[in-house]
Amino acid sequence: MLQHSECPRCHAPNLGSEIVCFACGASLRPLPKRFLPAPAQAPWLLWVGLLVGLAIAGFVGYHLAALLAGYRATVPMPAWYFPAAGGALVIAGQVALAEARKIDRRWWALKRAPELPMSQVHTGDTVWLRGKVQCESPLIAPYTTAECVYYRYARQEREEGKAGWHTVERDTKCIDFEVAQENHSLYVPSGGVLFDAQIYYEGFLDPDGEVQVKVWALPVGIPVSMCGQVAGESDRPRIGPCSDELPVIATWRAPSDYVALTARRAKWAQAAGWFLTVLGALTLIASVAKI
Question: Which of 111, 118, 246, 279 suits a disulfide with 184, CB 3.0-4.6 Å?
Fold first, then answer.
């Protein structure tokens, strides 16, 4: 006679040799100890932490709102000043949060893209590639003699009586180029490329140190990392944007370093967004508070 076992979930009869229930798919054999799920933590710890966090946030928010209300009462200003400032801060915070979400989506796409050699990529792949910059008619970076495919420079002058600088001249330019790896090459249209170039030259143009220039460039012959979607024919492949929100990335960094940099930018943008939003909300509260 055949041995039968009853499913613990749906109570359907199964053969004794079965591993999973034929009706609902539930496991009929106990899992080894190392595969058993970890015991759930006590939910009251989470609730206690949440209540403590809310209490601290309420205490700090109350005193900040009182401080802003006291400042509003002591400094003569129009009645609309505080509500307008609070609304502007809230809007700026929401813009920063939207930018943080955009950067976070970009980070997720960059993180998922694999690193492959050019000999293994196909049309439609979204990948990280690394190779040397090649160009038949390169640009000449300003204030240098470097041949490059992209440059950005800023000329700054020292402000009179101040320690700061103000920009008096800036420009950015790029051209189409190729990225080569061994016997393979990839065409890179300059339109829709997000360049991450390192600073190539920084120095003063006068002996008094009143005028300085900074030049960022992507010189010919250096290795670069590219992230994008491979397109075009197999004998003339090119790299294009992954999506409307993610252009082609051209960076001198390693792919992992650029992904980590993007993650940090998303965190900083998110922190700035929440800070501005909370500060704006407290300013709006202080504009109607009675002291």
Answer: 118
In the 3-class helix/strand/coil scheme, how is 105-131 assigned residue by residue? Answer: HHHHHHHHCCECCHHHCCCCCEEEEEE
Whether 67 and 159 share a structural domain: no
Which residues fall within 8 angstroms of residue 41, CB to CB, at 6 or more apart? none
Q: pTM to 2 decimals?
A: 0.72
pLDDT in tens, 150-191: 999 999 888 876 667 888 889 999 999 999 988 888 898 888
Instruction: Report which residue type is found at 60.
Output: V
Among left, alpha and beta (phi > 0; psi -120 to 50; other), residue 5 is beta
- Whether 256 maps to a domain, the answer reads no
Distance CA 17, CA 59 (A): 63
In a domain, 248, yes or no: no
pLDDT of 188-216, one tens digit each? Answer: 888 888 999 989 888 888 888 888 999 99
151 burial (CB, 10 Å; 0-12 / 13-18 / 19+) is buried
Query: What is the chain's alpha carbon radius of gyration, rounded to the nearest angstrom?
Result: 30
